[in-house]
Amino acid sequence: MRDLTVLGAAWEAPAVVLIGHEVEDGPPVSSPGTLRVLVVAEDALARAGIVAILAELPDCVVVGQVPPGARLTHALDRLDPDAVVWDAGRAGGLPDLADLGEDAPPVLVLSPAASPVRPGAAGGALGLLPRDADPSALQAALRAIARGMTVVDPAFAAAFPWPRTGQDTALPEALTPREAEVLQLVAAGLPNKLVAERLGISEHTVRFHLTAIFGKLDAHTRTEAVTRAARLGVIAL
Question: Per the structure, how many domains does the chain have?
Fold first, then answer.
């Protein structure tokens, strides 16, 4: 499973059943405690693929699958999902979520890992994962955004428009995806040698990244760097 960058308290993701259907079929009945998910994608095959993946997860239900636009607004009103999975297509980027309204459910965007993140005019997404994210990553991310957390794959961490929730919410210079990966492993308690082995780089390169990380976080020790990064939502603890 990919490491994820999470803004919020650490949690143990419960098992997440997703059953896809078209909106016209009517919303399925969900049992208490399940996560109701709406799948949004321009391409019908992409919608079907996402639903098929989500259908393998327990304790969730797909309440609908629609393209962006007028049908989406109707689906949100009628189906009342807890979260939305939005496929950004091959072009990637963050969709403009301005038309969804302030009461819209949290949105998890799936974007190509190789494409630069191009935020929409309003942003609004709480999660951003690659389109090829594995089911366990989707499961964890959906549960997190439903609880108001921000979940971002390290590949997008440097470019994601992080929400501003306090005075200490931004870095003068963002960590690169590799620096975020290094710091996440350091937070897990790995020494430089194991970090190097895990990422397939040299210990010298790990030390180089840590020096850059300390400078960006204004930290003097590994503990200070991890603590400040966790507070900023750059890594998950």
Answer: 2
